[in-house]
Structures are given as structure tokens and as C-alpha cells.
Design a protein that fits this description.
This protein has a 6-stranded parallel sheet, with helices on both faces. A 6-stranded parallel sheet has the order 9-8-7-10-11-12, with helices on both faces. It is built from 17 helices and 12 strands. It is α/β, with parallel strands linked by helices. Helix 11 crosses helix 15 and helix 14 packs across helix 16. It is 43% helix and 15% strand. The protein is globular. The longest helix has 26 residues.
């Protein structure tokens, strides 16, 4: 196998609009190509199929949404014959046992590299399907994938430690962004903007600190920007709120309109503490890249991203959230200084090209293991 012809089939459950697909796979296609690694991305669901499967109230429509994806996955098993490595981001499809993963590895005899950026092995209730959704997820398949994969690429140390306990070979690659896309811009707003960009499943974290924002409104005038909460009627006395849906097209500009970022992580009835600890801290990295000072709950990998007190503040209780946000709202010069230090820290620790080199090494190692296995078989 030459150094210039490595072919990787990248399998994932969700379309490009999802951060796990976009930032763990899609943004690496270009950098890896420069290193002689061709990546073909194969999501299970496209955007329309995802909408119908997860949002349409009609059962037949939801079932019809997965007919074509299932056919495509069988096609992918055939397509894998021409690949050197199969890279699986989380799972081959967002429900059911690891059937296709088994087909790729055992029937297709392809080395697997598993990528996990969340504690996907922990059952939790989320979304409209509740306990039924948890039952259909077959969470145990992640442990089996860890054991069968040549390597497990993890979004942080917490996940890496878990993978190694299960017998896997873990490599940490943080979820990062392109420094030329997530680039700071100068801002001098008359009224500072506190912001949060997330998903409906992570909105309960923010809800837990809304009392802190309400208290701050008694002393400071500020705007609150919300994107992706899934709720249309968020209201706090004394605060002007700009709330809207998340959009891939406007994501970077939405971040750039924020002067102070929020990153709360709070245990709730749907997500246990261990699941939260397994999150990759991506929002903190986005804030750093754009030079946005922020306040974060120091849980899991989020506690190790940036330098607390220099690039951001940490807060656990509502009183701490009030105190740290009060400092940032009062001192614009400090906000600018922390933002500059955050951007510098991002460039030093989270450069996309550098981490693409690490991923390339993992993929080449997996391909080489296949070659070794063949030699030993002969």
C-alpha cells in the first residue's frame, strides 16, 4: 500500500448539519486529502429523512424515512470492499444493534476506527420517544465496537479512559474548528450580548442558570441571544431576548454577535452526570476560536479547555454564575483581554491541521494492521 492511495469509508448516522458529522468528519476531508487519504462520507440519514424520522408524528412516514437509508447501508457494505479502512462516527445507524458494523468488520474484513465525541454508551431518555427511544438505541453496541476497533478516537480524556477500560486503544482528538472560518471580528456594541447556541436536548442546562440572568438584569442592561433552544416563549423580566432556531448557514455569525458566552452543564432528569462528563467541550472551543470570553461549568473535559481566570471563568452555583457574569459585564477591557488570550490558546492547542495529522496517523495505522493480518494469514 503506497503512502498516497489510502481510501477511507466514513460511516455516520446523521447528515452534515449535525456537529458530530460536520466537525468530526466532514471538515477533515480536505486536510486528509492533502495527506494522501481519500475519505468518502456516508451518512445514514439525509436532512429530509432525518426530519421525517424524528419529527413527523405519523408512524408510517417515520418508517418510510428509513427504507432508503437501510438500502444504502447494504450498498455501503459492498462499497467498503474498495476501502482500506472503515471509520465509524458513533454508529452506522441511530437505532438497532450493531449489525452493519459487524458486516463491515467480520464479513467485509475491514479494520474499523471508531470515533466517539459523547458518552453514547450511557442510556438516557431524550426526545419524543423517551424510554422507547432508549430501548431501540441498543447502547451496548458501543462497547462491542470499542473491543473490535483498531483504535477509538475520543473527543476527550473521559471517553478515552472509558474506551481503555473496555479494552480499546484510545486516541484523543478534540472536536475543533477551522481557524479561518471561526475568526474573531471587532465588536463595540452599546449593549453587551450574552449568548448561548445549542440544541433542545442541551437547553435544560441553560434553564438551570436563568435565575442568575434574572438577578443580573437588576444591575446590568444586556441582551440575551439564544439559538437552537427549541422553545419559542423564553422570557425573563428586564432582558431583551433574541431567540431563534439554529442554522448552519448563520452559526458563525451568530457566535460573532456574542460578547459573553454561556456554557452551563447541569445534571437533569434526562441526562445523568456521567453522560454530561463525556461531552467533548466543543462549545468552549468555539468560544476560544472566536475570542469570546465565557463562563462554563467545570465538568468533564470542559474543565480542562482553556485557562480558567485567563480565557474564561468557571461557575457551579447560581451565585457563582451571577458573580462571574457580573465581572464580565462590568469590565469591557477584561472581556477583550480574555478574548485575545482565548484565541491565542485556541491556535496553540486546537489547530485543525495538526489534529488532522493525528487522525491521519490513526487511519494509516489501521490500514497497516490489515496488511499485517493478511501477511500472518499467509
Amino acid at each position: 500500500m503506497s503512502e498516497r492511495n489510502l481510501k477511507v469509508l466514513a460511516i455516520c448516522p446523521f447528515p452534515a448539519a449535525f456537529p458530530s458529522t460536520r466537525y468530526r468528519l466532514l471538515q477533515y476531508v480536505g486536510p486528509l486529502k492533502k495527506m494522501g487519504i481519500e475519505v468518502e462520507l456516508r451518512p445514514f440519514l439525509d436532512a429530509d429523512e432525518h426530519r421525517r424520522y424524528f419529527e413527523d408524528p405519523r408512524l408510517l412516514k417515520r418508517l418510510s424515512a428509513i427504507t432508503s437509508p437501510l438500502i444504502r447501508r447494504f450498498t455501503d457494505v459492498v462499497k467498503a470492499a474498495g476501502a482500506d479502512v472503515v471509520l465509524i462516527q458513533r454508529e452506522a445507524m441511530p437505532f438497532g444493534p450493531g449489525f452493519f458494523e459487524w458486516m463491515f468488520h467480520t464479513v467485509g474484513r475491514k479494520p474499523l476506527v471508531l470515533d466517539i465525541d459523547d458518552a453514547v454508551y450511557i442510556p438516557y431518555e431524550a426526545g419524543r420517544y423517551g424510554r422507547l427511544g432508549s430501548f431501540l438505541k441498543f447502547y451496548g453496541k458501543t462497547d462491542r465496537l470499542i473491543r473490535s476497533a483498531h483504535a477509538v478516537v475520543c473527543g476527550g480524556d473521559f471517553l478515552a479512559e472509558y474506551a481503555e477500560r473496555k479494552g480499546g486503544r484510545a486516541v484523543v482528538i478534540p472536536t475543533t474548528v477551522d481557524k479561518d472560518v471561526f475568526k474573531p471580528t471587532e465588536r463595540a456594541p452599546e449593549i453587551p450580548v450574552i449568548g448561548w447556541i445549542g440544541t433542545p436536548s442541551s437547553f435544560p442546562y441553560l434553564k438551570a442558570i436563568l435565575p442568575a440572568l434574572e438577578r443580573l438584569a437588576d444591575k446590568h442592561r444586556f441582551k440575551l441571544l439564544l439559538r437552537g433552544s427549541g422553545e419559542d416563549n423564553v422570557a425573563i423580566d428586564g432582558i431583551e431576548i433574541d431567540s431563534g432556531p439554529w442554522s448552519m448557514q448563520t452559526e458563525v455569525e451568530d457566535f460573532r454577535s456574542i460578547d459573553i458566552g454561556l456554557y452551563p452543564l447541569v445534571e437533569n432528569e434526562h441526562q445523568p452526570l456521567e453522560f454530561i462528563q463525556g461531552k467533548s467541550g466543543f462549545k468552549a472551543i468555539q468560544y476560544l476560536a472566536l475570542g469570546i470570553p465565557f463562563v462554563v461549568s467545570p465538568l468533564g473535559v470542559a474543565a480542562s479547555i482553556g485557562v480558567a481566570g485567563r480565557t474564561h471563568f468557571e461557575a457551579t452555583t447560581v451565585d457563582e454564575w451571577v458573580a462571574k457574569l457580573d465581572i464580565l459585564l462590568t469590565d469591557r477591557a477584561l472581556r477583550l483581554e480574555m478574548g485575545e488570550l482565548g484565541r491565542q490558546h485556541f491556535l496553540e492547542k486546537f489547530d485543525l491541521e495538526s489534529w488532522a495529522g493525528v487522525l491521519a496517523g490513526v487511519l494509516r495505522s489501521a490500514a497497516a494492521s490489515r496488511k499485517t493480518d493478511r501477511s500472518e494469514a499467509v
